[in-house]
Design a protein that fits this description.
- The chain contains 1 helix and 2 strands; from the N terminus they run ββα.
- It has a two-stranded antiparallel sheet with strand order 1-2.
- It has one helix at residues 25-36; strands spanning 2-3, 10-11.
- The chain has a domain at 2-36: Erythroid Transcription Factor GATA-1, subunit A (Erythroid Transcription Factor GATA-1, Chain A, 2-Layer Sandwich).
- The chain is of the alpha+beta class and 60 residues long.
- β1 (2-3) and β2 (10-11) form a beta hairpin.
Length: 60
C-alpha cells in the first residue's frame, strides 16, 4: 500500500488500480488540473545553446 499523492488516502499500486498512483479518477484529474493550471513546474537550467527570447519575446 502507498499514499495517494493528491489526498493522502491509502491506495494500491498494483495493476488492479486503474488510477495508480492515485486512489481514484477524481484525484488523478485534480492532479492533471494542477499541471494544466501551471501550479506545478519543473525547474529548468538555461544552458548555452538553448533557445533564448529577446525582450520582445521573439526566439533567437
Amino acid at each position: 500500500m502507498a499514499l495517494c499523492p493528491q489526498c493522502n488516502q491509502a491506495t494500491s499500486l498494483s495493476s488492479d488500480n486503474a488510477w495508480r498512483p492515485f486512489c481514484s479518477e477524481r484525484c488523478k484529474l485534480l492532479d492533471l488540473g494542477e499541471w494544466f493550471g501551471e501550479r506545478y513546474t519543473v525547474p529548468v537550467d538555461n544552458l548555452e545553446g538553448d533557445l533564448l527570447q529577446d525582450e520582445d519575446g521573439t526566439l533567437q
